[in-house]
Amino acid sequence: MNGLQQITFRFKSEFEVRYLPQVPDVGDLVSHDRELWLVAFVAPNGIGMTVVCELPRGDGRRVQRVA
Q1: Side-chain-facing half-sphere of 45: CA atoms under 13 Å
Q2: Is 4 helix (H, G, I), strand (E, B) or coil?
Q3: Model pTM?
Q4: CB of 41 within 8 A of CB of 30?
Q5: pLDDT tens per residue, range 6-38
């Protein structure tokens, strides 16, 4: 797909597949269901990448970028 990668996002018990030019990094924010989620873990899954996200806790961690 013209430079796009298949990325599977996990938001608690929900999954969402997106095709993006680059994989977000741990610490980035991604949107899901009108909320911003923090990328907690990134790993290959055999057909692309899996990105595990969690709701930010407001503990003062710096966010790298919004993906």
Answers
A1: 16
A2: coil
A3: 0.80
A4: no
A5: 999 999 999 999 999 999 999 999 999 999 999
